[in-house]
Amino acid sequence: MALCISGSEKETEDIGCRLGAKLDKGGFVALYGELGAGKTAFVRGLARGLSAGEAVSSPTFTLMHRYEGRLPVYHFDAYRLKNADEAEELGFEEYFYGDGVCVVEWAEKLQNILPGERMDVKITRAGENIREIALIPCGKKYERIAAEVGK
Length: 151
Ligand SMILES: Nc1ncnc2c1ncn2[C@@H]1O[C@H](COP(=O)(O)OP(=O)(O)OP(=O)(O)O)[C@@H](O)[C@H]1O
Ligand SMILES: [Mg+2]
Hints:
Shape: globular
Low-confidence stretches: none
Order of helices and strands: EHEHEEHHEEEH
CATH superfamily: P-loop containing nucleotide triphosphate hydrolases
Largest sheet: 7 strands, mixed
Number of helices: 5
Bound molecules: adenosine-5'-triphosphate, magnesium ion
Strand order of the largest sheet: 1-7-6-2-5-4-3
CATH topology: Rossmann fold
CATH class: Alpha Beta
């Protein structure tokens, strides 16, 4: 595990950017953290790290946004889903094992359908502007990436 401390929204974006830069096809990032923790800020940086120029915002109502980067970036928000079955019915898994990189806010809602190989990112509020960002690798590839991003 790598633990990063962020003192601002920009720092959170920069950590996301460092992770995004390391991802390749099939990359998967599961985000956890309460409302306003900074999940979307992290995704904004992650998309930048994948050279996706578009504006990143929470896909709370649309459930998914797609950004064009060096790979397609699929940004999901599972907040409004009841459970993983609903995500299955909506065809999320087609993207999970597809041509791009997936990043999911409120990943706990999709627990049983998350790919086994992924990076879990847990964001915790530790003060008005302070966030603890834990990068928890699942699988060998992500162990290396966590070590590099955590440096
Ligand atoms: N260190 C920090 N990192 C990230 N955001 C921060 C930080 N300090 C303060 N903030 C503020 O916290 C808020 C984070 O909002 P953001 O939309 O990224 O959260 P979220 O986890 O995606 O919330 P939601 O669950 O509603 O989708 C922003 O208003 C941001 O300015
Ligand atoms: Mg959000």
